[in-house]
Amino acid sequence: MYFGVDYYPEHWPRERWAEDARLMAEAGMNVVRLAEFAWSKMEPEEGKYQFEWLEEVIDILGRRGINTILGTPTASPPAWLISQNPDILPVDEEHQRIEFGNRRNYCVTNSTYRKYTQKIVTAMAERFKNNPRVIGWQIDNEFGTRCYCDFCQQQFQSWLKEKYQDIDNLNQRWGTVFWSHTYCDWKEIPLPWKTGGSPNPGLALDYRRFMSQVFVDYQELQIKILRKICPHHFITHNFMGAGYDQLNYYDLARSLDFVSWDNYPRYHSQAEIDYFLIKLSHDLMRGLKRKNFWVMESQSGSSGWEIVGSIPRPDEIRFWTYQAIAHGGEGVLYFRWRTCRFGTEQYWHGILGHDGIPRRRYLEVKRTGQELAALSAKISGARYLADTAMLLSYDDRFAFEIQPHNSQFNYLTQFGNYYAALSYLGVGVDVISPLEDLSHYQLVIAPTLHIVTPQIVRNLDQYVQNGGTLILTARGGVKDEFNTVVDKPLPGLLTDLVGAEIKEYDSLPPGKTVELEMVHQELAGLKDKAHIWCDFLEPQEAVPLARYCEEYYRGEVAATLHKYGQGQVVYIGTFLNSNIIFYLLRWLSNKLGIKAPINTPIGIEVTRRQKDNQYYIFLLNETGETKVLFLEKKFRHLLTGKIVEGIINLSPLEVVILEAS
After folding, report:
1. For 469-526, how does the pLDDT look when each residue is reduced to its tens digit (9 = 90+)?
2. N or C: which end of the chain has fewer CB within 10 A?
3. The total number of structural domains that make up the chain
4. Does the model's pTM come out above 0.90?
5. Which residues of 263-294 are buried (b: 16+ CB within 10 A; e: fewer)?
6. Annotated catalytic, 142?
7. Residues 645, 537 share a domain
8. Catalytic site residue 297?
9. Which residue is catalytic, options 36, 43, 297, 364?
10. Are 577 and 478 members of one domain?
């Protein structure tokens, strides 16, 4: 297992480097990430490379048993490059050129920037390909930022021409007859600038797909160089978790050896830690490639640029580390080693403060490193176990960004409500694409599966026909792949699966709720307040699961259950509160025989990983109070080496790892 830190030796005197390496080694670290923002240090003038300082750092670290991941420095181009080629700077959606002075200040489609990217990546790869202490690469840093420049417009038009072949085909798919927007030539197609009002939804969706794809292509440009020159090194990129929706992460992950992501639980000045978002992010990052992942940046101090965020409380850094491992983490690196004295991130604190003196946070990291050194051989490579899957679609995220339907609607919030209920139940979850193989899951949930293709329908149909249980929700099946509403009764291509049609719907204003009650005999008596959206369902082969109790649609069906093939489909035609979602999923889980490995009270997270014939059960108390649970059999507690059974108490932020055959 890899345990380390993000290190910026270029910010500190050479005389300090050996001391930093010593302290890292004493904390149990075996890997660092270097150089992802050091382009001007490595190439201070065009074509004049200076890698000696970096080789020296790698050697100093290596003598302490610490390996290096090198970051390609393309997230932050040097001033000389921008000065010579100002058209590299991106343009925002209000058609304003973004000036030099921040990071990510490049247009990803710009051919000049791609040429210079090839040069610096090739130079780095050639210099370090045989360095025994360099084990891998991180491409760029936190890809994102859409560009709206003239070059992007030209590339977008070419991309559309390749996709649609014929301009009349594009006009028909997008419905450009509306508002007389029919195009006669590819060069007439604009970008969705803010100054242009509300763009055609088909154009807006394809632009988001295009910008996502050009980042994939740009990453591939770098990967090809590294694969050729450094075939024995791994390649990754640091993603930004489930909260980021500007790129299709499934596509971005495809060519990488594994996914990494950056985890900041106390990000800036947020009042509380959103543990469900953290867990969801871990599970999505693992699900992007169906493979264990790394955390390339794990918070180790207060975050902030102009405003200083809240500092991690005692034991939180350790807790976040184990939470990542519990969900399939194979490596955790902290951001950053030492808090910088200058620049924009003076207040983005690291393990050490500005003075470089080891204190509480360092000692907590050191304790964690010592524990992981003893655990690594057992847990490294163990796979995360999940009986359920949730289907997350980036096309849906893009579409709802363009047309959110209702001011109260948020895709990730609705998705997270179902995820949170599964987490409360202690059920393992894989977060995956709607096109992934679903055959080994007992339960699959696809919240607001909005844009549906025939391929997705075939995948879901096969899953349910073969005995799977599927949950679909409101606004599913509404659009085709061109972001056009289907011309058949909703839920469109999902109607056969649902066994019911939507005869009408209501979008509720802010603060408005409509009471509903469960009418299925095994759920009778449960009530909830529907909010945001209400579908009125007309069952065909399905049976009612819930009905509305208010408004002019009192008595109308709000949810259905459909026996389909050997499986079943539940359709929830509204947005429910988390409590009733919990009861609904508990009911289904009990019927399907899905259960947590250990019964735990609310606030205790439980996950399982398996390696060979050994199971490792992680119990993490994410609350501020002691929790009590009961173990029905004996386990070995890996962090203490003791045998435990019966009643055990978990203190706030306590971590327990149980080993079982």
Report:
1. 999 999 999 999 999 999 999 999 999 999 999 999 999 999 999 999 999 999 988 9
2. C
3. 3
4. yes
5. bbbbbeeeeebebbbbbbbbbbbbbbbebbbb
6. yes
7. no
8. yes
9. 297
10. yes
